[in-house]
Amino acid sequence: MAMAIRIHEHGGPDKMQWEEVAVGEPGPGEVKLAQNVCGLNYIDVYHRTGLYPMELPGAIGLEAAATVTAVGEGVTEFAEGDRVAYAAPPVGAYATERIMPWHRLVKLPESIPDEMAGAMMLQGMTVEYLIRRTYPVKAGDTVLFHAAAGGVGLIACQWLKQIGATVIGTVGSPEKAELAKAHGCDHTILYNSEDVAKRVHDLTDGKGVPVVYDAVGKDTLDGSLDSLAPRGMLVSFGNASGPIENFNLGILAQKGSLYISRPTLMTYTAERADLVESATALFEAVGKGLKIEINQRYPLKDAAQAHRDLEARKTTGSTILLP
DSSP alpha helices (H): ranges in 164-300? Predict the structure, then answer.
């Protein structure tokens, strides 16, 4: 019998239960997977708490590296034994086995081990769409990236340096500052003790930056907007500190005809061609030296503790759950 982390009601980590589940066999267009490594991401917290509603009861999780154990009718892209990965709905990655639609999977190159794949698909493809498609960063650009020592942040710092950008990153401690710098962040700002926007303007000779990437949310909104150059773009792609509510669009005019975007990975990879292109770009960046820092490993059955540590900002880099 397969096992999964499931929730029966929204709430804290204590709502996560380690339960037996019946998986069955894949139907038309589906693939059955033996999960090798599951990824931990902040969106899992949003599903658990109900910020992003999901059908209950159900398993959570959106990312894993796995091995194909059976294919359903009409599936020609994959075969039993293939190594694959995904970072896509339907939720339910926190499981030892599961069924997935074939078109949400990508094959893993031999050069990408399971642990790396399970740690990087969601965060890595997030970085891809942020810096290559939402606001295409060019060589010579200076960008501000919040939470630069987190999983997405460490990937972004490295990828931005491959492009030739200058990276300013916010961090929560001197230790996290050193970690971000070791991964290509040019300048770090301790958001707890420094005025972020003032430091950004000091570092850019008063110009501000053309783009700010912000997954923190309401706590960093004002500082992010004030860090932008005229006609700059705030890319708000998460809300770890809480959602932004009742936003006055007139502020964008007052602060320099600014733009704001609230994108999601699921929109940017909704079409299979876009998904494959995004994953391929990530694999190529890894081939050029981008490193995936797996700094925390938990047994899948202990996912509740992983969530506690993630929400307490005790984690750095990527975290994986091992079935």
Answer: 174-182, 196-203, 221-227, 250-254, 265-268, 272-287
